[in-house]
Amino acid sequence: MKDYDSIFFDLEGTLWTDDRFSTDDIAATVKAVSKHYPLSIISNCSLPYLEHFLDVSQLRPYFKDYECIGRTNQPKSQNIKNVMQRSQFKKPLYVGDTSADQRACLDAGVDFLYVEWGHGVVCLNCDSIKKPKELLSYLEL
Length: 141
Prior knowledge:
Shape: globular
Order of helices and strands: EHEHEHHEHEEH
CATH class: Alpha Beta
Number of domains: 1
Largest sheet: 6 strands, parallel
Radius of gyration: 13 Å
Distance between the termini: 6 Å
Structural class: alpha/beta
CATH architecture: 3-Layer(aba) Sandwich
Helix content: 25-40%
Number of strands: 6
CATH topology: Rossmann fold
CATH superfamily: HAD superfamily/HAD-like
Mean pLDDT: 91
Strand content: 15-25%
């Protein structure tokens, strides 16, 4: 198991996809990872949208915390720091799909894992996964 103390997820394009993967694949991965790490969502969406996802996906019980620009009006990098401070995380891994996610991670000082099924392209070299279940092997679970 890798030495992260938590896993942070982006929402749009990472957890909530446009049908490139079944929600069952993503839900099974979230459930499996949650047995080993506390999970959080940090997104640039509105609060009602994030809470709608948690309700519709039935994944709310698997996430310890969440934050979004719609609630704080702060950039993603600051919201990452806020969740780290609030939940006392020191070394999270952020799983996201855009160069903006990667920049936010660089600014917040956290590791970034790029998901290739998402909406964006990452500009800098980074680790990546092609399918949701590959997160399990990446984390050595």
